Task: inverse folding
């Protein structure tokens, strides 16, 4: 071990980034990333053994996690997650093998371990998914796996409500920070109230020639909502408006509870018990299906933009950016074939793209590869780009 450490230390000491050819920089970085993954995996595997040794008691630390945090120069919460993953690995051999091969980062391993410890049958599937997608997608699937294995979702929902909280703190730079946690339907109500103000902030910025990240407008919208409320005035009771989509299996809605892999969630926010879904829906599902129901899959609209029905259908089927490496749910609707050529808007010819990817397609010629659903998003030089497809 000491010889390996000395060799690596010598390699890093001799590293001069500016001496690395630009064509090789990414490859060299990837090699060091693999070394980092292997080292992180070894630390995770050993963490439970360090805790068992009891050295943390002799060091004056309050816990094994605090001791590991001091040794590694990280936070206690991060060390606690590492220790938890290490303990879970005792019963997760496939995950352990992937970590020993340097195939997973510490974040990926932690997400898989947490879900697979609840549902051991999902271990291999989640390990394979971790190697094929990004961390946000993996975390969402791990959450779905945990929810599906939850035998008492009402109790989980009740616990989340009981543990609801908002925490504010000033960081080392002096910036004010806000962290909130609560049930999904409360989050949906919060976002429904905030979204119109975000759009207002966006329009105002554009009119003033400003272009800032969406998160900036969210902060400004939140502050304006607070500052516009007159001091001492009774709170106004806003009519709840749910702009998010509720995804619930009809069998679960009828039964009153989900089973196995059935879903009941507010898309983009999180899972909720069927009871909560019924409360949110009220009688609106009858109006939606009976009096407003249309077969959106076959609607052809002659206008440039999609109809309201098409937008709802597209958000239902594809709530995220179609780029498989992007998890943004703030999307713009893109015509696969330019509207200037087709002069119509059909659901099967639309893809949701985040503003960044939409701009890459419009200004630099990037494109989704042929197919449907979420897929690779590639530059014009990539052989998978549709422009390289042989003529029919």
Result:
């Amino acid at each position: 071990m000491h010889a390996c450490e000395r060799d690596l230390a010598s390699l890093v000491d001799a590293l001069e980034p500016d001496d690395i050819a630009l064509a090789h920089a990414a490859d060299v970085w990837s090699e060091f990333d693999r070394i980092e993954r292997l080292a992180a995996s070894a630390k995770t595997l050993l963490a439970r053994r360090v805790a068992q040794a009891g050295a943390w008691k002799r060091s004056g630390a309050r816990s094994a996690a605090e001791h590991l945090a001091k040794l590694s120069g990280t936070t206690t919460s991060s060390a606690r997650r590492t220790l938890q993953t290490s303990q879970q690995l005792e019963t997760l051999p496939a995950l352990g093998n992937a970590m020993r091969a340097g195939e997973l980062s510490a974040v990926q391993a932690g997400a898989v371990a947490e879900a697979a410890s609840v549902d051991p049958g999902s271990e291999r599937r989640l390990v394979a998914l971790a190697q094929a997608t990004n961390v946000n997608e993996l975390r969402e699937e791990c959450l779905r796996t945990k929810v599906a294995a939850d035998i008492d979702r009402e109790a989980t929902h009740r616990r989340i409500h009981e543990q609801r909280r908002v925490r504010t703190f000033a960081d080392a730079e002096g910036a004010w920070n806000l962290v909130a946690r609560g049930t999904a339907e409360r989050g949906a109500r919060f976002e429904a109230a905030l979204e119109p103000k975000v759009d207002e902030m966006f329009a105002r910025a554009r009119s003033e020639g400003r272009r800032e990240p969406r998160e900036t407008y969210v902060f400004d919208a939140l502050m304006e909502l607070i500052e516009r409320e007159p001091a001492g005035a009774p709170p106004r009771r806003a009519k709840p408006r749910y702009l998010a989509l509720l995804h619930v299996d009809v069998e679960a809605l009828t039964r009153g509870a989900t089973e196995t892999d059935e879903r009941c969630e507010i898309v983009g926010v999180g899972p909720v018990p069927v009871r909560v879904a019924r409360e949110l829906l009220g009688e609106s599902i009858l109006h939606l299906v009976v009096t407003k129901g249309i077969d959106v899959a076959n609607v052809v609209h002659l206008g440039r933009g999609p109809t309201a029905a098409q937008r709802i259908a597209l958000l239902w089927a594809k709530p995220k950016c179609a780029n498989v490496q992007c998890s943004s749910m703030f999307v713009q609707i893109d015509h696969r074939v330019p509207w200037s050529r087709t002069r119509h808007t059909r659901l099967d010819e639309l893809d949701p793209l985040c503003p960044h990817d939409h701009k890459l397609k419009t200004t630099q010629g990037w494109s989704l590869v042929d197919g449907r659903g979420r897929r690779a998003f590639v530059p014009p030089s990539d052989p998978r780009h549709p422009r390289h497809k042989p003529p029919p």
Observations:
- The chain has five domains: 29-149, 153-182, 186-230, 246-291, 298-388.
